[in-house]
Specification:
Blueprint (H helix, E strand, L loop, with lengths): L1 H20 L16 E6 L6 H17 L2 E6 L6 H13 L4 E4 L8 H9 L3 E5 L10 E4 L3 H16 L3 E7 L5 H14 L7 E8 L4 H14 L3 E6 L2 H13 L7 E4 L3 H10 L5 E3 L2 H16 L10 E3 L5 E3 L5 E3 L4 E3 L4 H5 L3
Parallel strand pairs: 1-2, 1-3, 3-4, 4-5, 5-13, 6-7, 6-8, 8-9
Antiparallel strand pairs: 10-14, 11-12
This protein binds alpha-L-rhamnopyranose.
The site of alpha-L-rhamnopyranose has 13 residues, from helix 8.
Length: 343
């Protein structure tokens, strides 16, 4: 009789523990050696993009420090919202603890990420954001205004403030690129940039071959083109190659956002004088820490609070649920080799 009571009490206590633990894992409850792993899925715009490979490396660094975290790195082969929806559906069935996502569309993914959140999965977007309803937090790499203005300024510096320019972007629905393009267009209305004219905006979908074809198209249909701004690491690399292949080095300058490891050769060829980027390793690292705080229901993990991002320090979350990291850094022939060893 006594024995039956003990067994019953254990079962009931276990049930309570399961209910209490639903959707959040209390700090210290299962961490450490032998504890239950926290599974954080990193869903990227598409696989095979060096920028996200670097973010993945940062996520793995964070997981190592946090000790009981497993990273599931995934994404569609081409950057589509449909591909990401399918992946999130499967992550919901796998009952992961958190999803960190760079979204291919700000709105199309919201119903599925809402469904994930309703099942207790913590959703944090990073890089390319989800609309506010679809996530708990958006981690921006940097201030969008600075990123947009910097790219116009670099293009202006390269062409002496005068001439036709074009934009080669990623996919047409990408939240981050569309925000930056909006800021670039506003910046171009300033008097200091009145000599520059935006003649075309095209989309390479963050695919090397399509970006290359679009760049060639820009060069051939705009014989007076002076600069291509590509706010994507895939696009800037492809556009630089197109300028070299069309023998237009010195006539057309490429700038935008690139990875030093992919751009060093293009700086040397002269197709690129300057480009900018933030550290994608730090971004992947910080968003993993942020997701961890939401899983652990840390008191600061809410709009108006802050998350602990390990070696990156605390990151404040504004009223809109957004946080931002450091200002973009500019690379040229003086520093590109040094950084190309890192990302
Ligand atoms: C590409 C992606 C990513 C963007 C960088 C700059 O790798 O589009 O979202 O932040 O470029």
């Amino acid at each position: 009789m006594k024995r039956r009571k003990i067994i019953l009490a254990t079962v009931v206590a276990g049930l309570f523990a399961t209910v209490a633990g639903c959707g959040e894992k209390k700090a210290g409850a299962e961490g450490g050696a032998g504890g239950e792993k926290i599974r954080i899925a990193m869903v990227v715009k598409s696989l095979g993009n060096g920028f996200f490979d670097a973010a993945h490396a940062g996520a793995n660094d964070a997981a190592k420090e946090l000790k009981n975290v497993e990273i599931i790195y995934t994404g569609p082969t081409t950057p589509s919202a449909e591909g990401q929806i399918e992946i999130i559906n499967s992550l919901i069935s796998q009952k992961v603890d958190a999803i960190v996502i760079s979204a291919n569309d700000p709105n199309a993914l919201v119903p599925i990420t809402k469904k994930a959140m309703a099942r207790g999965i913590k959703v944090v977007s990073f890089d390319s954001g989800l609309a506010k309803d679809g996530r708990l937090m958006q981690l921006n790499p940097s201030n969008a205004q600075l990123i947009g203005e910097k790219q116009i300024q670099m293009a202006s510096d390269a062409i002496g403030g005068k001439g036709e320019i074009a934009i080669l972007s990623a996919s047409a629905q990408a939240t981050n690129q569309n925000i930056w393009i909006g800021i670039m267009k506003d910046t171009l209305t300033k008097p200091e940039y009145s000599g520059m004219k935006l003649v075309a905006t095209v989309y390479g979908d963050d695919q090397s071959d399509k970006s290359y074809r679009e760049a060639i198209g820009l060069l051939r249909s705009n014989p007076n083109l002076k600069a291509i701004i590509s706010p994507t690491t895939v696009g800037i690399n492809a556009a630089s190659k197109a300028v070299v292949d069309e023998k237009l080095v010195g006539k057309v300058f490429v700038t935008g956002l690139g990875l030093p490891s992919e751009m060093a050769g293009h700086v040397k060829s002269g197709a690129v004088r300057e480009f900018a980027i933030w550290n994608p390793i730090d971004l992947g690292y910080a968003v993993t820490y942020a997701a961890y705080d939401f899983v652990k229901a840390a008191p600061g993990a809410k709009a108006g609070g802050s998350v602990n991002a390990g070696r990156m320090g605390a990151i404040a979350i504004d009223a809109n649920g957004e946080g931002a990291m450091a200002a973009p850094f500019v690379y040229d022939k003086g520093n590109v080799d040094k950084f190309s060893k890192i990302f």
